[in-house]
Every structure is written in C-alpha cells, then in structure tokens.
Write the structure tokens for this entry.
Amino acid sequence: MIKRHFLRKIFSNVSTFKHQFVKYSLDNVKTHQKELMSRGLPKQKPIDGVKNIILVSSGKGGVGKSTTAVNLSTALKLVYPEKKVGLLDTDIFGPTVPLMMNLHETPFLTDKNLMEPLINYGVKCMSFGFLIEEGSPVIWRGLMVMQALEKLMRQVYWDDIDYLIVDTPPGTGDTHLTLIQNLPINGVVLVTTPQKAALEVTKRGAKMYKKLNIPIIGLVENMSTVICPSCSTNIKVFGSDTEKLVKDINIEILESFPLNESTAEACDKVYKCKAAHVQIDFSINSLRKMSDNRILNATKMNGIEGKTPFLIGVAGGTASGKSTVCKRIMEKLGQVEVDSKQRQVVCISQDSFYRELTPSEIARAEKGQFNFDHPDAFNDTLIKDTLTDILAGKMVQIPIYDYRHHSLKKDEVLTIYPADVVLFEGILVFYFPEVRKLFHMKLFVDTDSDTRLARRVPRDIIERGRDLDQVLNQYMNFVKPAFEEFCSPTKKFADVIIPRGADNHVAIDLIVHHIKDILQGRPRENGVYNTPQSI
Ligand SMILES: Nc1ncnc2c1ncn2[C@@H]1O[C@H](COP(=O)(O)OP(=O)(O)OP(=O)(O)O)[C@@H](O)[C@H]1O
Ligand SMILES: [Mg+2]
C-alpha cells in the first residue's frame, strides 16, 4: 500500500495521475507528442545542491548494481570523510536501498515541500522505497513512473552533496534516458557478472552511454569467482569473457568482485557497517584507480574544485584562421611545465550554438538563402549560460552542429570538462555584450578578406558539400555584408589584434607567454582572475 497521505503531499494527490492518464485521447497524445518534439530534448539541469552525479548501471537485473551503488557511496564517505555523499535509488518497481542501507522511516518534508533524505553511514539516501509500505508491489504505468522519478530528481532537499551515486533499475529504458536527458551526469559505473547473457546486455548499455556521450568510468565485474570453502579453489562459475568485453568496448575493469556469502547475507538481512567493510577494500582500490581518471578530475576529486578557468574569446571573419590560432595556443599551452599533469586547455566553437532552424528556414538554408552570419542565427542565451557555468568550474554539455544538414546533431552532445584555459572562437563572440564581458582576454584574428574568401570556397565545397554558385552567392549576399555590419566593428573590443592569423607566430608566442604569466604568477581573488592587461 502506498502511504497515501504522504504521497498526496508530495505528488499533490494520487488521483491526479489517474485523471491525467485517462484524459489523453489519441489526438491529444499526438498533439502532445508534436509539442514535445518541437521543444527538442529537455535541457539538462543540475540538481540543486549537488555537484557531481555518478550513475551505477547495468542492462541486466540482479548483477549487483544496488550492492555496488551502496558500497561505492559508503566507501566514498569512508575514504573521503570530508566529502558529502548522497545515494539516490531510482528503481521505482524494486527499490532495494532501504533494506541495504537499513533505512525504513518516512522522510520529513521541508517547508518548501522537499523531501529530507534519510541518513546512514554518513550517506544521505533517497529511495521510492521510503514512500511505500514494505513488501507492497508498485503497479504503475510508465507516465506515473516518470512523474515519480521527476519528484525523486527534483523534490529532494539534498542541501549540499559532492557526489550523488545514482542506483538505476535494470535495462536501458525510460528511467535511464530521463536521467541522462535531465541531469548533467559526470560518468557511469557499469556492473556485470561474467555470464555471457549479462555481458551481452552490458555491451548494449555501454554503447548507449557512449552514443549519448556519457563517460564510462569503468566496469565492476561482480560475482567473478567463487572460492570453495573447503579447498579454497577459485571457481569461475559464470565463465571469463569480461576481458573480451572491455577490450571490445574499450573500457577498464575497475575491480573484480567474488561471489561472497557475507555480501549476500549482509544485503539480505540488514546492511551493517561491518558488512560494508567486506567490500570496502574493493572500493578503496577502485577509487584510487578512478582518481587518476579524467572522469574524477571532472568530479573534482583531486582538489581542482572551484577553479575558475581563464576564458579567452577569439573572434574574426569567416575563414580568418580562428581555429588554427586556437590550436596553436592550445599546443603551446599544453607544454607548460608547471602542473603539466593538470593542465587542460579546451576550445569551443560558437558554431555549436547555432539555434534550431524552422523547416522553412532549413529550406532557405539548403538554397544558400539563410544568413548564418547574422547574430539572430545564434542562441546567445545558451552561449551566456554555458560560459557562465564554465566559469563556475562546472562540467557542461554543448550541442554539436552538423554543417551538411544545417541542424544540431540529434542525441549527440559534447562534454566539456573543467579546464584551466577555455578558448571560445567564432565570428560574433564579441557581438553580444552579455557574452563579451565574460572573457578574461579577447583576441581578434584579422586576415585579409581575399585570403578568407580563397580559403572559404574550397572548404565549403569539399567539407560541407556545397556547390560553387551557392558558396559565392552566400558570400556576396550574407557573409560579406554581415562581416562588415556585425563582426568587423567588434574588433574595437579586442585586447590583441592578430594580423595574418595563425601565420603570425610572433603574436601567438607573445599571447601564450602572457597567458602563462597569468596562470602561473597571478594570484586569483576568490577564484577570480584579476583583469588581464592588454599587451
Ligand atoms: N558479490 C556478491 N556475492 C554474493 N551475493 C551478492 C554479490 N553481489 C550481489 N549479491 C546479492 O545478489 C542480489 C542482487 O544484488 P543487487 O540487488 O545489488 O542486484 P541489482 O543488479 O541491483 O538487482 P536489480 O536488477 O533487481 O536492481 C542481492 O541479494 C545481493 O545481496
Ligand atoms: Mg537494484
């Protein structure tokens, strides 16, 4: 039985679900679907108070996802006691976290109607199991499950969490997609047994995460062997094909974990702190491995938390050599000796922020009659929000632009991890005042217009599949006038103007020296760089 009085408070009331569910006729559903599709993918939004989110996932049921999620979170807390750790159980039909964490109370509500997580072993936990009577089945349709998940994602008062470990149900279904589409996931830990059937679905799951650009932290091979209690022989009950799988999909085994009577017992009875220690060795080793891993750099485990990257804007006309200038700067900065392990320089293109076109605009674009050089072609709000997040040291995900089809790639995003230096290049990066003021340094690549045209024509024909007439028409009608009206006037905002672009080695060397001086020498006040001087 659902604790109705409680649910009513959280979900307004249970009958709302039924009402909404019945109300949809086929037409309604179609209109609703159209409306949803026109809105595009939901925008990922962090959970209030949560810094990093790690999913624990497997296509297969019963392989030890929840066991791993519970151990990972308790281990994180033991190894890094100063960190605040949370555990979110998103399995609506089979929540096991209450049993494993020995938590059985009903959460309190804050005055803002947010559920307060229950705490054990120093880990804040939330599970749908806290909201239903123990042992009672949940017989819900997908829509209701999604609404419950939404509440678990957004209506919990986490307050302040460094690492939120998310236990997921088996499979790669609605729950996983909803989590991925709505939350900025730092990475996923896959769990499998070495059994062929489990490996097969794990592989499918891994492919899904790769396709959706979610970094895979690594694989936990659970129940890898059984140690015979009388003769201590190591028996591989489920075979040994895991190595092949990790090679195939190019991921790392974090740890292999034997089938162990005490683990099963601990989970079946009450998950005692003593039992957590049975697996804690595995977790410590894995965490150490992971701390050398880029993903956990992203989760800011190695002390780079709160870092404000040095943000450089690079503007200039079409084909002026902006990307090559950025590439040179990145190469030269990559060789900085101090902190070389940590040094990370990334470059983002303004092209990722073209807005979605309407069907009629796409038709015009296909005939070369859409002005891609006009400020209106860009989503300047998204640029501002993304750069603001980057400056706050957050991991961000940005769209990928498909030049051939004049659209953003569906289901594909690019993950940008916190870095020391971020270059943002594009024709109009200094045009929008709100964006312009975010840069620590502004460079303008000033290349002669004939040279730019001579570079643009073959690039558009060869790389972007356009024909000569179309390229020239577009240049004369849109590119050239827009450069003169919108791009060229922003030169006055630049700190440094680089004539001849990437060929100007002297200018690039001077700029790189200046950036190195700032990164190595200058103190930051509250994580913020002092305003750079022009050179
Ligand atoms: N290494 C192990 N040795 C012995 N028993 C284990 C081990 N790992 C997990 N178990 C047991 O196997 C059962 C399933 O584990 P768990 O609930 O973690 O799997 P799951 O993948 O989360 O399952 P579901 O798909 O139902 O969510 C539990 O009873 C657990 O105690
Ligand atoms: Mg589970």
